[in-house]
Amino acid sequence: MTVYFMCFFLFLVGLYGIVTRRNLIKIVISFTIMEFSVFLFFALIGYVENGVAPILTKNLPENPVFVDPLPQAMVLTAIVIGLATSAMLLAIAIRIYKKYGTFDIREINNLRG
Amino acid sequence: MEVLLSVILGFMIIGAIYALHANDLLSAVIAQGIVGYGLVICFLHLRAPDLAIVQIVVETITLIIMVAVVLDSSRKELKTPAGWKGTVNIILGLMFIGFMIYFFDMATASLELFGEHSMRMSQTYVEEGAQRTGAANLVTGVLWDFRAYDTLGEATILFTAALGVLTVLRLKGKK
């Protein structure tokens, strides 16, 4: 249970960063931290004590206990999508920096209109 | 296993907190790398080699993009104080976090203990996956056969995001 809570704490650190930071790059960093904690939570749920990786090889033990392959497949999809979304966020950050010359979201607010 | 994972997670949390409070943006990006590569080690200990491989690649690409963005800018963390709005934000954020902890407590009550997972959903995948898909790696079997539509959707999202990045970076924009 400690592991679940620490994983959730990592999520909360990312959430705190998104709410309180004013720098666009730091917001993107907090976003990726939240993503990572969710991936880790999925992998933690699928873990079975003394399990082996879900790959069929020649020298498996008798009656092998596999860890759950389903959450791993889901996370594999989610990791790649996470890369796509953070690349998109960073591209928008570059555009904003080129237009306003700052990463500060307050400055961008002030220049509106 | 639980102790080892807790130690790695502790390092990841320290890295995450440092990334949020660093003065130089470059060191914030590098500290985010601690979180990503710590995640790789966690995946290896959780018997998920496929995830570890993909995570190494993705983390490296993200770091390269972020360093490229940061080196192009002034790299300084903002010096202007946040003012009363910032204090209100911090208080609101902490209240929100307390709210989330309440729901986390409710949700984990229904979960099984760490390491005692019962495979309700994936029993069929594990037992028949090798015969029905012909893949030695069960994760690949699930990804490319049982849930191939998910993979198709993932490819669509990846393609759309690549198009989006190209469009955003190529636009001239109003001066």
Looking at CATH, which topology of chain A would you report? Helix Hairpins
Classify the helix fraction of chain B into a percent range: over 70%
Strands of chain B, total number: 0
Q: What is the rounded Rg of chain A?
A: 20 Å
Measure the end-to-end span of chain B.
57 Å
Shape, principal axes of CA atoms of chain A: elongated
What is the percentage of strand-forming residues of chain B? under 5%
CATH first level of chain A: Mainly Alpha
Q: How many domains of chain B? A: 2
Number of helices of chain B: 7
Give start-end ranges of low-pLDDT stretches of chain A: none
N- and C-termini, Cα separation of chain A: 50 Å
Give the DSSP E fraction of chain A (strand runs of 2 or more residues).
Answer: under 5%
Task: Report on the architecture of this protein.
- The complex is a heterodimer of chains A (113) and B (175).
- Chain A contains 4 helices and no strands.
- Chain A is mainly alpha-helical and 113 residues long.
- Chain A has a single domain (2-51, 66-110), classed as Helix Hairpins.
- Chain B has 2 domains: 1-75, no CATH class; 123-175, no CATH class.
- Chain B contains 7 helices and no strands.
- Chain B has helices at 2-21, 25-45, 49-71, 83-108, 123-133, 138-146, 148-170.
- The model of chain B has no long low-confidence stretch (mean pLDDT 87).
- Chains A and B meet through helix 1, helix 2 and helix 3 of A and helix 1, helix 2, helix 3, helix 4 and helix 5 of B.
